[in-house]
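Project standup — Tuesday

K.O.: blocked on the structure for the chain from last sprint. Re-posting the sequence here as requested.
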Amino acid sequence: MTSTFFADTNSKIRKLKKDKTYPVQNRSGLQLIKRGNSKYFVGNMRFPFTRNGKNIPVQIGVFDKEISVEDAIDKWHEIKIWSKANNKNPKLFGVVEEEKASDKTFHCVAEEWFNDVYRHEVKERTYKDRRNKFNQILRYIGEDKLITDLERDKKGRPYCREMLKSLFPESPVQLTRCRQLLGWIFDYAEEEEFIGKDQNPLYKKFKWETGSKRVVSTKTFAQTITSKSWGMLPEFLKTVNENKCNGSRVTELATKAHLLMCIRSGVIVSLEWDWYDAEEDQWVIPPDVGGLKNTREDLEKGSCENHIIPSTPEINRLMKEARKLNGWNKYCFPSLGGQNKSHLGEETINDHFKNLGWKDKQSAHQWRSVITTAGLERSDFDYEVIDRQLGRKGHLEGTRGHYDRSTLLEKRKEFMKWWSKTLVEQGLKI
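H.V.: unblocked you, prediction finished:
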């Protein structure tokens, strides 16, 4: 067995290069989190001290700039002793007891929630997106409004309703997301007693809301594939080959990789050359890649595994073409310029589908439906083999998730070989 690495000395921490969460001591709850150039300590403990207690993350300090590892260990030990002795939330350590709830501004409470709670629950991309939306809200509310001025009894609900409608009049989905975001902030304020009990003005959604979830496209020609017909698949592959919209070579290669590799487009556009394992002839996708849909909480727990994409002769030929074009770059499909990222954007492949003439007929996301339907109708592979290769995680839920450690990798390799050959037989040109 390999021994666990502990970030327990300053020299060790300075040498860390990989972005992840490192334990500082065994079973102490203290962790060192590295994100880009930032390294900071966070302590985790359950509160209240009952079976129903929740894990409470506590910011200890930024490494080197604010605190050394030795001081972080001492401070975390002091916080735990104080919390247990006083039966108080560990985040209240050092807070001036005389501070009144009415002294807290909405801005101040929201910042606490973002830094102490939300950043540990979601991925960086989601965190930044919600931060941007919050900044729009804050410009409307202002930095000096007290959190108590927004309580239900002080007509905080109609105030929030008018604010949301004025900020997002043409975007009902964004409006709903922001109402939900504000609701979480007010829940936190009530839990921390910054506002009175039952004073959350957004305790429920408004009647005119459309729903809080993003609508996932259901556009696909999968239903045309049967045990006796490939339906519209050959026609679709013909348009991909012809590329009449004159999509760039990088976009064309990324699109074909998306068709072959059986994973979300967010993973495809993020592919790095270093992820290819030539010895095993497979692509090893790190768990923190956005397209794998792992939560930040699971990532910080270390409970997420790499996702394996077995390669095939067809995929290898395609990636050989990509390497001729972009082998010098970190990414297999680098950005064409004008984007914030150095690789293609997540919507590039879906936009290419539209430009090829498949708008309202087939989306990039629902290519997964084509793979599943074709695999079940035209092969002998089990649903679960296909499901695992697509990166779904249903087998990790419930009781089964506690015991099932299978990967079905050998069966997935056979499925990938069949799928690659099938696409070529139906007309895909590499």
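K.O.: great, moving the ticket to review. Residues 10-92 form a domain with the Double Stranded RNA Binding Domain fold (CATH 3.30.160.390). Residues 190 and 198 are 8 Å apart (CA to CA).
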